[in-house]
Amino acid sequence: MREQPSDLAARFEAVYEKNRDPWGLETRFYERRKRALSIASLPRERYGRAFEIGCSIGVMTEQIAQRVDDLLAVDVSPRAVAEARGRLVSLAHVRAECQEVPHDWPSGLFELITVSEVGFFMGADGLKQAAGLTAASLTQDGHVLLCHWRHPMSGWELNGDDVHRIFIEHSGLKVICEHLERDFRIDVLARETMPR
Ligand SMILES: C[S@@+](CC[C@H](N)C(=O)[O-])C[C@H]1O[C@@H](n2cnc3c(N)ncnc32)[C@H](O)[C@@H]1O
Fold first, then answer.
1. How many structural domains compose the chain?
2. Residue 136 maps to which CATH number?
3. pLDDT one-digit tens code per residue, 41-67
4. Most CB atoms closer than 10 Å: which of 35, 172, 173, 193?
5. Residue 15: what pLDDT?
6. CA 49 – ligand 1 centroid, Å
């Protein structure tokens, strides 16, 4: 983590200062359903080491935690991370850290990496870098979960379709499971396609 908060960190910190759950992750049916679809899309029942990028206040983290042995969840906003830590305090196999991806990137390999509703905020160059790092950090049989809102977002250059296209191209990974609807898309990636 850098000594000075980045512009991105300051931007999200201001969002969380106004509202501790800015996207209604705890309350909205839309978010609950999207999370349920995301988690249900993971092809394996159990994963070993997992990395969640953009964990916010830890609502999805809690659910990913049920399927993995060890989870590192990161977010650029210290307020969000503090909320996540409070929520996850009883889960000894989960760690929440304040980090900005791709500038910060953990060492070692992961069986599962999740990039949910966060890729747009990295910009195209950051996302390309994150995609390359993801591919390099994924175990041979690992999976990547992508889930993003598809509509234009004011103040941000990429929508969810852009994020998935760029990420897939720059990771070199293959889509093994996809869910597409008007508002969001989910893609699960792996090194090899599965026979259909
Ligand atoms: C919409 S929330 C995503 C919550 C959760 N992943 C989900 O899908 O329900 C986006 C989060 O990403 C964080 N974020 C944005 N850019 C980031 C980056 N480059 N690295 C880490 N976290 C980031 C924000 O602070 C915010 O908490």
1. 1
2. 3.40.50.150
3. 999 999 999 999 999 999 999 999 999
4. 173
5. 97
6. 20
